[in-house]
Amino acid sequence: MVLTKGELSGLERRYRANLINSIGGFKSLVLVGTKSREGKENLSLFSSLVHIGADPALCGLIVRPNTEGQNTLGNILRTGVYTINQVHAEFIEKAHQTSAKYPEGVSEFEAVGLTPDYVEGVAAPFVKESIIKFACELVQHIPIELNQTHFIIGKITHMMVPDALVGPDGFIDLESAGTLTCSGLDSYHATTSVIRLPYAKP
């Protein structure tokens, strides 16, 4: 298959979405937990989490075009706090279901059967079923005018990882944790480690 820019634009909308979403390869799969100022909990599935830096500890998240209501975008912008929760096979169907467009004010936690969990100092809910999770505070919001998406940059404030999964050098064994990844819009995958190489030098 060889497609030019014009041919890409002419593809059927859903076919093009599947094609473009999968050509970039495997992506991180996380559930983002938020809570509105009115106390309504929200949970959404994301495949756009990216590492930005370790000092300070920053990560980025692309949020699709959305109004700033009681949803992930609105809650993050109004409260400045959110959680990132890794997804495992034991609850992948429930995680997938959070991507449905529930009416504003409906808790996805309740709708899909996942458990909100709170820790001291973090106003947003974690997912109790998730093994590896962390909390962020909003440090920068960048609207992307090209397609009306939003780039959310967060500073990591809390981390929760089982001790047995953290190596002597700080490396987290995601495969032993059963962390899933995804490709495209709706295909979920387990992983198999190939090799871990030493720090490359000239």
From TrEMBL:
Q: Which residues form the signal peptide?
A: none
Please, which domain of life does this record's source organism belong to? Answer: Bacteria
Does this entry carry the keyword Flavoprotein? yes
User: What region holds the Flavin reductase like domain?
Assistant: 29-164
What's the cofactor? FMN
InterPro entries in alphabetical order: Flavin_Rdtase-like_dom, Split_barrel_FMN-bd
Q: Does the keyword Flavoprotein apply?
A: yes
Q: Which UniProt keywords apply?
A: Flavoprotein, FMN
Q: Which PANTHER family does the UniProt entry name for this protein?
A: FLAVIN REDUCTASE LIKE DOMAIN-CONTAINING PROTEIN (PTHR33798:SF5), FLAVOPROTEIN OXYGENASE (PTHR33798)
What family does the database annotate?
Belongs to the flavoredoxin family.
Q: What is this protein called?
A: Flavin reductase family protein
The organism named in the record is Flavihumibacter fluminis
